[in-house]
Please model this.
Amino acid sequence: MSASKSDVMITALENGPYLVAGPARVADPDGEQWDTGGRATFALCRCGASQNKPFCDGTHSQIGFAAAERAVSEAD
Ligand code: FES
Model:
């Protein structure tokens, strides 16, 4: 499945971050928004070890982060 120009697509990368592609904004619990630098694509940390949360800084590859999640249809 691919995203249209107006869609946001979030992809869980293999043992890595969530890759966000599309016109998305990221806010903290108070509604304050992080600056994404106007990038159309950015990565959100999924391992919890980034020193630049909520963004991925590549630390996941140094700590051996292993994510087993896969989207499974109800028929499976
Ligand atoms: S997923 Fe990359 S640093 Fe956490």
In short: DSSP finds one helix and three strands in the chain. The first strand starts at residue 9 and ends at 12. Residues 60-63 form the longest helix (4 residues). Strands lie at 9-12, 18-21, 41-44.
